[in-house]
TrEMBL record:
Keyword RNA-binding in annotation: yes
Pfam families, per the entry: RRM_1 (PF00076)
GO molecular function terms noted in the UniProt entry: RNA binding
Superkingdom: Eukaryota
Organism for this UniProt entry: Musa troglodytarum (fe'i banana)
Ranges for region Disordered: 61-83
Protein name per its UniProtKB record: RRM domain-containing protein
Cited Gene3D superfamilies: 3.30.70.330
Cross-referenced SMART domains: RRM (SM00360)
Keyword annotations: RNA-binding
SUPFAM superfamilies referenced in this protein's UniProt entry, alphabetically: RNA-binding domain, RBD
Compositional bias ranges of the Pro residues kind: 63-83
PANTHER family: NUCLEOLAR PROTEIN 8 (PTHR48029:SF1)
């Protein structure tokens, strides 16, 4: 969180860990207050060293569905309360 806060207001930062061992899985997520700050954080941290590791900063992508499972169709209407 400290390293990424140089580029904007960090709302949330989390390193993903293994449930059993507690060791890092090698990736994490950082959420900034604005998209502009997120872009600045990506530009500022991508390819830099942090705690002896090279950081690859990029926008999060949705997870692919498991093999053999089709993704759900997109909603045909906006969610409740968004009309």
């Amino acid at each position: 969180m400290e390293a990424f806060s140089k580029f904007g207001q960090v709302v949330h930062a989390r390193v993903v860990t293994d449930r059993v061992s507690g060791y890092s899985k090698g990736f994490g997520f950082v959420r900034y207050a604005t998209l502009a700050e997120a872009a600045e954080g990506i530009n500022g941290m991508d390819g830099k060293f942090l705690d002896g590791w090279v950081i690859f900063a990029e926008y999060a992508r949705p997870r692919a569905p498991p093999p053999g499972q089709t993704p759900p169709p997109p909603p045909s209407e906006p969610p409740y309360g968004y009309r």
